[in-house]
Design a protein that fits this description.
Blueprint lengths: L1 H21 L5 E4 L3 E4 L6 H36 L3 H19 L5 H23 L2 E3 L12 E7 L9 E6 L2 E3 L2 E4 L1 E6 L1
Parallel strand pairs: 4-8
Antiparallel strand pairs: 1-2, 3-6, 5-8, 6-7
Length: 188
């Protein structure tokens, strides 16, 4: 008995699908790319109501498709930049590590500590690179206001106009997004 009801339901769905396919009219207007909305030329109130309901349904479907597409794009962006907040909070730690590693130790014990810190720093850098973090190139490069922040302008021999003379603070990109612009001196 249940199988008969399922067969009847499938037949009804097929008939409805065929009616929807056959109901396309010559007076069709395109909305949002693929959504078609019919315009009714009939004076019959039932036909007008059916056309209006069909148009509402098509608009709802288009709205739902747009919502799904936006949601999918937002999820992709979230996945792509999921580590940005963590990276932003770790960047000052990396800066301090880098400053500490610039100083040479005088004793053998200090040199061992320095080597250990260098190893930890390298591991941290590799872990962040695996997440998509890249250093912004600076010295000798042309100044680009989208990735560099000019904090000083100097006149140096041997550098072209608008060329970066010195990096004051490293800048970083996460995939294609600037996490922190590089602070630089620029030649006038």
């Amino acid at each position: 008995m249940t199988e008969d009801k399922n067969n009847e339901q499938r037949e009804e769905e097929t008939v409805i699908d065929e009616q929807v396919e056959d109901s396309t009219d010559e007076n069709v207007e395109i909305l949002d790319g693929d959504t078609e909305v019919e315009e009714s030329d009939s004076d019959d109130p039932k036909e007008v109501e059916i056309t209006e309901l069909r148009n509402k349904l098509l608009r709802q479907q288009a709205d739902y498709d747009n919502f799904r597409r936006r949601t999918r794009q937002e999820k992709e962006a979230d996945a792509k930049y999921r580590s940005q907040r963590l990276i932003e909070s770790v960047l000052p730690v990396m800066d301090n590590f880098s400053r500490a590693l610039k100083h040479e130790a005088e004793t053998e014990e200090g040199q061992n500590i320095h080597k250990g810190m260098a190893m930890v720093y390298d591991q941290l850098v590799e872990a962040l690179k695996s997440e998509g973090l890249e250093e912004i190139p600076t010295e000798g490069e042309a100044f680009d206001p989208t990735i560099h922040q000019a904090v000083m302008q100097v006149e140096e021999e041997g550098f072209e106009s608008n060329q970066i003379v010195e990096e004051l603070q490293k800048g970083y990109l996460l995939k294609d997004r600037v996490v922190r612009p590089a602070m630089v001196k620029v030649n006038a």
